[in-house]
What does this fold into?
Amino acid sequence: MGEGDAMHLTEHGLRPAGRGGFMHHELDELRRTMALEVVRRFTPREIRAQILANLHRWRRQGVWGAAYKEWQDIAEGLDDGELFAAMLGRDENAVRLRQSAPFVGLLPKEQVRKLNEEAAG
It folds into this structure.
């Protein structure tokens, strides 16, 4: 148990939550690992193109959120540092943005599967 870990209240007292999936920090670390793999394989220009293509498609499909506008601004900008900070940062803003990461589709499915398996232990 660590600070911030989920607990369940039962008739026998407080117990750690079951491990049915990833904890929040584990899930973000997986997202960050996937983002790092994207950064290793693609240029900022290629990443921006994928981000904008996904955002365009999602908007057309009626799927849009505030984080997508932030990603759009980042992708339309020329600051690679801002792009990498959003993709790889450990601050609250980067963690929040990675929850709506629009650079999906760049990694091969086999690589995504491998990263998921490694994260699951």
Remarks:
- The chain has one domain: 22-120.
- The mean pLDDT is 87.
